[in-house]
## 1
Amino acid sequence: MLKLTTLLITVTLFSFNLYAARALPEFSARYAVQKFGMKVAEAHYKLKHTDSGYKYSEKTQVSGFASLFRDDTVTAVSYIDDIDGELLLRKHSHIQTGGEKNKNEKFSIQWDTSSKPIKGKITGTVRGKDIDLETDTPIWEILSFQVPLMIQASEDVKQYPYNAILKGKIDTYNFVLTSKKMITFADRQYKTLHIVRSDPDRDRQLHIWIAPELHNIPVIIENYHDGKEFSRIELE
């Protein structure tokens, strides 16, 4: 049984009065980023309601002993429109400082919702290269896909396919519900859904545990490389 000793998460349910149609409440959550069993960074995630949908943001900064050697930061934000119940990513930016590689992203998507199927034109810059792509399905990236996952996840649904942009290319990422597990935090037990995405080309997996009673907010995210835990993100 996994045990989370503390939980710092605020779910502002009062926001439903203003945005009654929103499937997710606003929240703010703090996570510990761990590598090799040691906390190396702190990540803050916020979901806010907008007039047209959601704003989902991340701020990650090196902390603890690791901050003596690195000063990396990640600032990311995604704007998602809710159009007649369909979620569409409209704009995304990801700015990373302190790293050796340019991993910055900034792009927008112009949607034509009058066509069937919908059509989207994606333009911007990813890792220093201009992109100009077209799509006829909703498109996500590593941050924003968590929003439809939190809305859709259920123990009755096994498959969660998402088309997403990674490194400037569009691909399909399949997440599979593999199991359910009880975790304990704040002196309470919660059922979590364990959802896994396996890379078809490399021995890498992304494991996500989400809690239905907390609107499917991720409580643990783990990356595995070659069968070993590479990194872990856990609610603090």
## 2
Amino acid sequence: IVEVDIRRSKDGELIVMHDSWLDRTTTCKGEVINYTLAELKRCRLVIEGTHAVTNETVSTLREMLMTTRDRILINLDNKLEVGDLPGMIAVARDLGMAEQVIVKENLWNQNRIITVKAAMAAAGGGFQFMPIIADDAVHDAGFASTVDHAFAPGAIELINWRAGAETLTETGGPLFSTRMRAEAVRGDWHIWADTYAIVNKPGGFLAGGRGDELAVQASSPREAWGFWADRGATIIQTDEPKAAIAWLAANGYRVPYADEKRPAEPAHTASIN
């Protein structure tokens, strides 16, 4: 899975850009929304850290989808409003790629569920929706059951915000509780954890401090990837996929759904992906 952040240009084109400003990742300056697509195409992407200029330009959503067709699942990170989701799905559907797309939105109460459900209905079917629940707004694992009944998702992304720069979670918080694992088994959905880094934030910002930095830079993969796998995570979103896969496989966490001797069957107990 690759995460692709979506914004709009001044003239309404859906483009791929994480930041609302162009300064960090391109040779241009200012806000994305103030540039037309033609103007954005004159910007060059730069290497983070060194700011070395590349020959790559800002991509449209359509261009990104065409490049990734039949190669990898696309997780659309909507940087716009919920009401913009149908337009994004329409682009994917026009290319015959709706089934290759995952859409995610934050959910925190019943009103938000209603709003997102309406957007999903407007977008039509044929794509995957995976909700996000964060422990700054949701403290009861039972809310996952409400979400499951509303959307029947294949996975729910759970966020354990890092409490402080020097703090590592000891439990994973209320969303990685025994009850949440029971909800996942009952609803037959994956628990999705995020260990990737956030720019200008403490390490493991979405994972209670137990992120990729702890696993790789501090050489403590068991305290990061192993910690979340032990608390029910069957999907880990990481910036270190090769290292994570190697460690999880070597330590018995990553088990294939099927081998060559038997056909694949639906798995009720999921493996680390």
## 3
Amino acid sequence: MQIAATDRADELGAADFTILGVKSYSLDSIGPVVRQTAEKGAAILPFLNGVETTDRLMALGVPRGAILGGVTRISVARMQPGVVERRGAFQSVIIGELDGQTTDRVTRIATAFRDAGADARVSNRIDVDLWQKFVFIAAFAAACGLARAPVGVLRERPLGRRLLQRAVQEAVDVARARGIPLAEDETAQVVGAIDALPPGTKPSFLLDLESGGPTELDILSGAVSRYADEAGISAPIHDAVTAALANNRLS
């Protein structure tokens, strides 16, 4: 599909929605563009990892009322500027107002995604959806990043499986400490989802480590570690990952 691509805000016209699909470490650099589109009336729909995006956007000058919550599950890779390659059949989207209301704008954008072939739905608890994805991706990234290995290597070893399970449990504990009503069997569900991944699967966090570039450590294990400290609970796996991988590079 051919689309117009630009890195200049003044070339962008008015829009109903601005969809953010960058890595979290690139959010600050596009902040001025996002703020400008919000000022022109666009609703801001971020599809970023982590659970701190709303606060970060507000710190960049985007009004809270302009921000929606968004969760997507899709496997894609940026091949070059303006070129993105889809690498998996799954493509699901969850969208919701931060206050849980079902509004015309969330209904419209969900319909647009469905018309494009995606599995899209509107949620009245987008905070829970965001945390469910966060638990999965933070634990998956932590274990594979620390082991420098794809998920199959960890699953086949008792200590590797224990690492995965404990990383999931710590993130679940943090979510509950922050008042997020996860399912009673959330840990088992997330471990089951990790078990269902092909053995050669690597999280993008590990790919970023291997490339020697910036990573999302701060908004994944770093966030679990910070939230655990605030709640007065223990998160030793995520503490260790944050400390061990803070230089963002493989040795």
